[in-house]
Amino acid sequence: MPGPTTTIDDRYSDPGSSATPWAETRRDLQRAEMFWLTTVRSDGRPHMTPLVAVWLDEAVYFCTGRDEQKSVNLRDNPHVILATGRGDWNGGMNIVVEGDAHRVTEPDRLRRLAKAWEAKWDGSWRYDVVGGVFRHAGGEAVVYGVAPTKVLSFGLGAFTHTRHQFG
User: Where are the beta strands (DSSP E) in 41-138?
Assistant: First the structure.
């Protein structure tokens, strides 16, 4: 995937600041441990929940039980927002990823993702790949990938509002 077009929104950025480079935003996406996922219910109401996710091959991946609300919502509407960052006022960066969630069932990709989850959390999240899903001690989880259409980076302390537009 080619890199995004990156621009700064001067209306919401400190005077003289510059756009956050995509490499820095991507680094923070790779390091992030917790994300907030927003999906849309069938009646149009939003649903938000925290979850763990991994950044791999220029996309964010997460998993969920088949009958959890987020999975039910994604059956009818693939549009999602994933957000991560810190609640600090004077430092760090908050990131918002917009895109469509697509089910991942291909065994080789699922095995790569299972290894990524295990490596990221020092073995705390271990999955086997069976029948197009992750299997774990508590049952099974379906896996979704979100290739971003837009990523917003909000620098804190030195305030910046950067837009990374894909496609």
Answer: 46-52, 54-56, 59-64, 79-84, 93-104, 128-130, 133-136
